[in-house]
Structures are given as structure tokens and as C-alpha cells.
Amino acid sequence: MKVETIRALWKRPTRKSVSLSKLLLATYILLALVAPIIAPQNPHDPLQIYAWEASSPPLAMGGGGYTYLLGTDGLGRDIVSTILYGLRISLVVSITSTAIAALIGVAAGVSAAYFGKWVDVVIMRIVDLQLSLPTILVALIAIVTLGPGIDRIILAIIIVQWAVYARIARGVALSEISKSYLDAARLQRLPTRRVIFRHLLPNSIAPAITLVPIELGHAVALEATLSFLGLGVPIDKPSLGSTVASGFQYLLTGQYWISLFPGLALFGLIASINFVGEDVRRLLDPRNRSI
Amino acid sequence: MKQDSIQRPLLEVSNLTLKHRATSGATTILRDVSMKLHRGEILGLIGESGAGKSTLGNAILGLLTPEFERTAGTILFNGQALESMDERQWDAIRGRRISAVFQDHTASLDPLMTIGAQLEETIRATDGNVSAHQARARAFDLLVRVGIPNPHERYASFPHQFSGGQRQRVVIAIALAGTPQIIVADEPTSALDATVQKQILRLLRELVDETGVSVILVTHDMGVVAEITDKVVVMKRGEVVEADTTSTILDDPRKGYTRRLLAAVPRLRVRSCEQSDNRSSTDREMGSDAEAPILIVQGVTKTFSGQGFPWFRKHTRKLALRNVSVRLARGAITGIVGESGSGKSTVGRIIAGLETAGEGTLDIDGTSYDISLPGQRSGLLGRVQMIFQDPAVSLNPRMSVAETLQESVRFGSRRPLGARPDVATMMERLGLAQSLLARYPHQLSGGQKQRVCIARALLAGPQIIVADEPTSALDVSVQAEIAKLLKEMVTEQAVSMLFISHDLALVQELCSSVYIFKEGVVEDAGSSEFIFSRSRNSYTRSLIDARPRRFTY
Questions:
Q1: Distance (Å, rounded) from C-alpha B455 to C-alpha B496?
Q2: Minimal Cα–Cα distance from B509 to chain A, Å?
Q3: Is A117 on the interface with B (CB under 8 A)?
Q4: Domain count of chain A?
């Protein structure tokens, strides 16, 4: 499966024009990777922040020997640097949580399908329950119970997202189980582990994987939402969402830059992930793959 | 009328060449195909999968997707060139002058509309001047015409309330709604049981004789061709191999391919051989087999309970098997014949330990197994191997042939390490090249896949193999090869086989004794010779009569 998937992804970009969204996403990832090198300031380090330069407008000259291209926030942190470092946090949180959620979800869904009976009932009723509650509510409950912190946010997003994967994986696994090759596997008295990992899982995983890019976009948005509500990342390590939130109170006094620029960066990030995700999903969908 | 039809054909396809453009490049689907259809004629288009017969049918219906490109040739219908028509012009032809009947009768009907409404809709769509009242009257007439019993009562019924055969009758009625000149019927009976198939074919013949409509019958089944067609076009890989009247094709085929197709059709012998009739009725139960049977299944009863909460399940309960007893002779093939829903596959799965049964006993070689327990717990699972119907889904698509076969040797084999069979030897014996070992299922043909499935079953070293319709998803010529192979394997590998099929001729060819299943009950049983020549059971007789005469002797 792995080889096929990679091949399917590889085949398409032979088109000469790289779409804007792909370019944008690539830029975001590159910026996140090199943020410590190119950022004029480390916004996580209090020693590099000059509190008396708080709320400087864009293009103001700063005491550190560099221009605040996009101004500073209410604590005197350079907005450019905050965006670059915030990007890192946003991406780490969303990628980690999406990957773990997919893993847990697929495992739960396939187990429900394979073991059936009470395992199926228990897992799928939890899934139903969870999907019937609004996403943000589930996340809020999780955060309130677990407490703040980056790891807690990741956990909250996993709790919100695993159910989607579980439901899809279960459906696919059920249809695979009805195929005769799994009967044949049972007739050979293969160990349960082998039936699941060698036969069932590799054939049930593809549709769930097509969900990953889209859920990644949701994860970024959810993290930003939680941070905006003040339930997210700690104040000294702002993500894109929490920077937007911290600038919110200054909007009325005309200091638009604190919220606006991180907001735009966030918008571009989610949009590019969603567009690229849609492309990837279409490529991975076997129904769209011509032989 | 004959004179007139000879002069001017209703439909004439000349030198049609079609290419299919895909991302991987263009492939020629039809090459230089020509055919003529006259009024009141049934023309059979026959060929194996990939022959291009359905594509030709779709071209005549104007239903080709944009990936198809016509590079040469014309399709003339009443002097009009169909191949260059746009969608608006097609609207005047399709459904009115040329209509269609497809294989899948369930997908051909709207599940949310009553059949009466669907008929009326079609009638009014093809003729704008019809009043609601007239449309209703015509719809009734059509239902009567296609033989739907009690049309007044069934008029407001939904498609799911009909049986498969009746649904196909309704589809034919809809095809007739626009009083067409041509009906293109693409495998109209392939999804139906043999007895129903016969009735539908008879209906088509009657309609042609009465209304003078012409039918293009796309099929892979020589039996269907022999039954009702006037002319036959034999196709192979997009080309016309031979075209002539049906009797000429059947009695005096010119081309080797046609002869091979005909030879591959299993023949049913119904005339009694020179065996005396005076065997006692207990003797016929197991033929002349003196040895103890390897498998004895007795009194198996199984109910399928419906889904849902336990206290609702009672109402959806369905008896799948009732007091079924089957014995399997050692080193021979025993057949189970039945139409869909007769429970024949369920018996096979119970014997293999894949399903449980409420009541009954099962003995393999003197060892009893509790079939009310899941196969893993009773130890039955693994003693019996299976060969499945659809080779497309019976191999793990993500495992190569080598991995599949080695897994069977490693895990499935009940023999000690030293005595384990060799994958390479088995491949060679089954006519599979060593180079196929590295391939994945989607890179194999249907016949090759089924051979791999046979190898997988044999490599596990079972005493018993249950073959559930192992040839019905394959082309006719491949069917014959696989059947021959199964027969040889039973002798060579010293296994006993339960052969489940709906094909009487194939069962006769392979099996020494036969069970006839009907609605979950053993309706008739005996030696192959007894069942096919001397059984007086009316159901057995009706199954035999449903076979095309041409291939029965």
C-alpha cells in the first residue's frame, strides 16, 4: 500500500504549474522549520523583549537594532517573530494530534468491525455519542478537565477527531471482512494478529488516510479556536490563535496589527492545507485513480 | 416481409472502429466491426469478457462516455447516421426508437417509485400527446403483455416487492413503452436463475414475433444464443470473428474460436446410460460407493436472525436450512445444485466452519465437531478448505502470489514440516508460471487468480475442499479448464470435494453424486446418473428442462 500511495502522490505533480496553495503550504512549512534562524527575535525569551516598545505600529524601529515590520504586540513582542514561532506551535500541535487521532481511530474502527459483538457496540456507541456533540464543546470539556498546556491541546484534538476515523475505518473493514479472502485467511487458521495486521488493516486503511489532510486543516483551526478562547497554549508561548486573541483587546484602540497579521497568516495556513488536502484526497481516492 | 428485410436492414454498423483514451494511452476497443440487423430479428452478440460486445451495444444506444473516440465507420439506423448525432438528436431516438434492457434489474428501476408510475413516466416522456388516462391504460397493457400477474394489484407496488424475474419483466415493459424498433438487451438474464432465465427469453421471443421489434442480445452464454436468436455475431477482442444465422453457427462453425466457445459449453446428458434400472432406492443414495463417507452431515437446521434488538428479531427470522443431511464420498466430487437462496452456499460454509448452525451433527473421518460453536472453538476451522466464487475478492489485493501461497503452507498446513508441499511444484502442476509469484492479484487474469486460489486451498493439505461456484465468475473457455483441473486435483491430491453450483451440466461432468437443494431443503439426491436420467422429482426435472435443448442430449 505504501508504495502505491506514494506513487499516486508522485505521479500527479508532473504538471508544470504548481498551484498557489501548494506553494503557499510549502512556504509555511519552510518558514516554520527555519523560524529560529530567520526570526529577528525569540518571542519565547523574555530577555529579548523590550516591554517599553509594546504596541509599536508596523515599520517602527526597535531597540534591538531591527525594524518591527509588522509592529509589536501588547507585551512588546515582534509580530513577525511571533507569527513564525506561532506557526511552529500550530503545525506541531495539528500534525501530532491528527496523526495520533488517525492511528487510534483506525485501530478502534477495525477492532470494532473484526471483533464485533460487544466490542463493536461499545466502541461505536462512544463514537456516536461523541459525534453528536459539537466539536468545540467536546474540546472545551476536555481542556477544562485536563487543564491547559500544549500536550493537553493535542490530547483534546485527538479526543475530538478519532471518532471520525473510527467510523470510516469500521465501515471499510466490514466490507472487507465480507470478502472471501478473509474467509480464506480464517480457514488457514492464521493467528488473529496476522489476520488483522496482514489482511484486514492494510486493506481498510486507505479511505481513512484520505481524511488526514482535511482533518489536519480542522486541527489547525481547532487549536486556534481554543487558543483564542484562552484555553490553549500558555501565554508565554503563543500560537497563531492565541496571538490573534491577545490582540483582540487592542483592536478598539486602533492597534489593528496585533490581531490582523497573525489572523491573515492563520487564514492562509488553513486555506492552503484545505486546498492541498482536497487535492491529495482526490488523488488517493481509488475511485478517481485510473489504471 | 422477409423480402423487404433482406433489401434494407433496420440497423447497419459498418467498419466501426472505436478507441478508448485513457491516461495510460489509447486502446482500440472495436476494430472494423460490421453487422446488420433486420426487422423482427433477434441478433446475438456473443463473446468472452473484453470482446467489446457491450461497447458495441452502448455505441448503438449512444451511451458511450467521452473517452471513447470513433476513428472510422458508421452506424446507420433507418438511413440516419447515429454516430454523428448530438445529445438533442439522440433524445428523439433513445428510448423511443431504440431502447435498452440491462443486466441489473435492481439498478434499472427507481426504488422510490411504484412500477406503475415509472411506466407512465416513460410513456409520457416518449409521447407528449398522451393523456394521463391513456398513459395509465397503456401501462396496464404493457404489464399484462410482459406477464406480470395481477397487474391491477401490482401497479402501485415498489420494485423491491417483486422477484428478480418480475423486475426484469417490468424493465422490459419500460423498454417497450416508447414502441421502439430495436431493443438492446445487455446480458438481460445473466443475473437470473436458470428457470427464470428461460421464461424471460421466451417472453422476448414472443414480443419479437408479435410486435416485430428487433432485439440485439448481448451475452456471453451460448445457451442463451442457442435458445432464441436468429443470427449470431461472434466477437473476440473487439473484432467480429464470425457472423451468420444461429443454426449455421451452432451446427457448422467456420472459425476455430467459435468452435472453441461451443466446445467449452458443458453438455448435459439426460438419456440413461446402459445401467439397469433395478437398483433399490437405498442403493441410489450414495451410488456404488462402498467405502465409508469422509464427511457426514446430519439434520442441519439454521435460521438467520435479523438485525436489531433481540425482542424484535423474532419477526425477521428466516429459516435458511431445514433438516439437511449430506454425505461426502471419499476421493470423489459430490455436487450440490440449487438456485439462488436455496441455502447451498450456507451448507458449504457450515462444513468449512465459517458459520454455525442451530442443530445438526458433523463428522469428518469419524471425528465429531460441534457445529453450534464457532469454527475456531470446535476445531473445525482449518480442516476443510474452500475455493470461492469470485476470484477478484478471494485473494488479498495487497499480497503477492508468493506471499499468499507461502502463508498457506506455513499456517494452513496440517502436515509436519518435512511433508509440506512445495509451492513451486504446485504452481507448475496448476499451470502457473513461476514468474507469476511476484505478481499481485490485480495483475492476474480471472483464470490465473482462480488457479492461485486452488493452489492456496491445496497447499494447506486438507482432506476436504468445498468449492462454492468456483467457475461461475469466469469466461466459458476458462471455466472448462478450471473444471478439468479440479477433477484432476481430486484424484492426484487424494482430497474429497463438495462442488456447489447452479450449473447442472458442470455438476454432471464432475460429480459422482448430487444433491438438489430448494429453499433450504434437500429436494432430491442420488448418484449423478440417477438424478439426471431417471429422477422423477418434478423440481429436478424443471431444472433440467430449463437448460437449452441444444446442449442437452
A1: 15
A2: 26
A3: no
A4: 1
In chain A, residues 189-248 whose CB comes closer than 8 Å to chain B: 189-191, 194, 198-199, 202-203
Q: Which domain holds residue A40?
A: 2-288
Cβ pair B412:A189 closer than 8 A? yes
Q: Has this prediction a pTM greater than 0.80?
A: no
**Vertex B223: Cα angle to B222 and B224 (nearest 5):** 90
> How far is the alpha carbon of A31 from chain B, nearest alpha carbon, in Å?
36
The string of pLDDT tens digits covering residues A19-77 is: 788 888 888 888 888 878 877 777 777 777 776 676 777 776 766 667 777 777 777 77
Who has greater pLDDT, A135 or B464?
B464
HEC readout, B274-299: CCCCCCCHHHHCCCCCCCCCCEEEEE
Pairing between β-strand B80-81 and β-strand A67-68 as defined by DSSP bridges: unpaired
What pairs with residue B99 in β-bridges?
Answer: B183
**How many beta-carbon pairs below 8 A join chains A and B?**
73
Residue closest to B62 by CA, chosen among B17, B35, B100: B100
Q: Which of B382, B393, B395 is closest, CB to CB, to A189? A: B382
Q: Which three cell numbers stand for residue A233?
A: 497554549
Measure in Å the smallest separation between the Cα of A223 and chain B Cα atoms.
37
Question: How far apart, in whole angstroms, are the C-alpha atoms of residue B213 and residue B172?
Answer: 12
CA distance A7 to A15: 15
B411 to chain A nearest CA, in Å? 6
User: pLDDT band at B535, cuts 50/70/90?
Assistant: confident
What CATH number did the domain enclosing A284 receive? 1.10.3720.10
- Contact B429/B461 with Cβ under 8 angstroms? no
What pLDDT, in 10s, does the model give residues B146-175?
Answer: 888 888 888 888 888 888 888 888 999 999
A188/B398 touch (CB, cutoff 8 Å), yes or no: no
**Mutation target vs B (from A5, A180, A203; most B CBs, 10 A cutoff):** A180
**Residue B448: is its pLDDT beyond 70?**
yes
User: Domains in chain B, please, with CATH?
Assistant: 101-179 (no CATH), 292-308+316-383+502-553 (3.40.50.300)
Q: Which of B386, B390, B398 sits opposite A203 (nearest CB)?
A: B398
Picking from B23, B24, B412, the nearest residue to A188 by CB comes out as B412
User: For chain B, what is the radius of gyration of the CA atoms?
Assistant: 26
Residue written as grid cell 510549502: A26
Determine, for residues A185 and B396 on separate chains, whether the beta-carbon distance falls below 8 Å: yes
Average pLDDT for chain A: 80
Residue B136: closest CA among B123, B149, B126, B147 = B123
Q: What is the pLDDT of residues B328-338, one digit of tens each?
A: 888 889 999 98
Q: Please write the tens of the pLDDT for every residue from B168-209.
A: 889 999 998 888 899 999 888 887 888 888 888 888 898 899
Give residue B272's pLDDT: 56
Please give the Cα distance from B190 to B104 (Å, whole number): 9
Query: Alpha helix locations (H) across chain A?
Result: 2-11, 20-38, 79-115, 117-132, 135-146, 150-177, 180-187, 192-194, 201-228, 240-248, 257-284
Mutation target among A11, A114, A187 for the B interface, most CBs of B within 10 A? A187
Contact call for residues B210 and B182 (beta carbons, < 8 A)? no
Q: What are B131-141's pLDDT values in tens digits?
A: 888 889 889 88
Contact A194 B353 (CB under 8 A): no
| Length of chain A, in residues | 291
Q: Is A14 on the interface with B (CB under 8 A)?
A: no
CA distance B488 to B92: 57
ipTM over 0.85: no
- Residue B541 CB: number of other CB atoms within 10 A? 13
Contact B398 A186 (CB under 8 A): no
Whole-Å CA distances, A235 to A53, A145, A150, B157, B418: 18, 19, 11, 67, 69
